Amino acid sequence: MKPIPSQKLSGLPPYLFVRLHALKTQAAAAGLPIIDLGQGSPDMPSPVHVVSALKNAADQPWTHRYPQTQGLPELRQAIAGWYQRRFNVVLDPETEVLPLVGSKEGIAHLFMALLEPGQGVLVPSPCYPVHYNGAILAGAKVHLMALSEENGFLPDLKKIPAVCGRRSKILLLNYPNNPTGAVLKDLRLLEDALAFSRRYGCLIAYDNAYSELVFDGYKAPSILQLPQARSCAVEFHSLSKSYSMAGWRIGFVVGNTEAISHLGKFKGFLDYGIPAFVQLAAVAALNGPQDYIATACETYRKRRDALIKALAAAGWEIPVPSATIYLWGRLPPAARKAGSLAFAERLILEHGVVVSPGVGFGPHGEGYIRISLVAPQAQLEEAARRIGLAVAELKSC
Ligand SMILES: Cc1ncc(COP(=O)(O)O)c(C=O)c1O
Questions:
Q1: Is 207 in the pocket of ligand 1 (CB under 6 A)?
Q2: CATH number at residue 233
Q3: Fewer Cβ close by (within 10 Å): the C or N end of the chain?
């Protein structure tokens, strides 16, 4: 007997970061010193007081038992409290907050909880892979909203054909944006999204994973700051990026009560939620001092500026993002013909620099490379030097 994957699964290529990891392992086995700027996995240690809270909690035997899907009441309250302090939005911790085993899990399961096979989802392209893959695994039909440099990487919701609008049950938006680093300069897109939702009756899933990783005075909004948003929107957050807790697997979703209740019911069949000691550590992160975030932002800003300068010196100009932990650059001219995957493979296998090919984020990401700012400045500068060598080799080919 040979198990056969479902059509939905076999229709998807292996997950981008799994593929990059395999190439990286190959390059390391060949003896190349690796600089990994592929996945957006923060390299700074999590806050000391959060690690202490985890250790203390793990010493309490009750935290060794099964947790509950809906999360500890003190975590739901901490999330609501953080939200009120950060966005001035009051949430009911009982009905408008749900902790998640990371926001990636929550986004994929929201699709599965709400969608019938064949129903539509509007997803940006390029996008964080689970926005697309999660919808496909739920059996949905994806309508891609093209993002381009010319429109500031914002979708034009007015251009979506009525037939797609009527068919779509979920509209997914993500700002500050992965992979492009684009931000909302005003609330117009969010207002358009609410109008779109009113017209077609779809839920807005707003992914705000990078709300705290911002530079140069930018402040990211929450969609729930708009009146009436909670009647039609949920917003996803992650502790992975703000508090460098990617390995802990904890995030949350807030907003529309019905959507949150359906997702909670769905997850109840699949998981027991988050280990209690991780939940208590998250309470410490959300309720405790927030200076860690300011320090992390300053570190990423310095890295951003240093890498952009080093790449410019190597002949590659990249725009300056106001948020996220990524640079998103058009492929250097010499690499355009072969495409982003071939360039990324060359960088990994011949120069030991792991970056993400734009095409891994959707067809409209072709022609770009994403570089994560997840290494110290000296390594970023060394990566820029090696990238310069790769571009020079391509030019001379
Ligand atoms: C836009 C976006 N949403 C969600 C996630 C997933 O975060 P988490 O670690 O909370 O699952 C990521 C991770 O890179 C992301 O870039």
A1: yes
A2: 3.40.640.10
A3: N
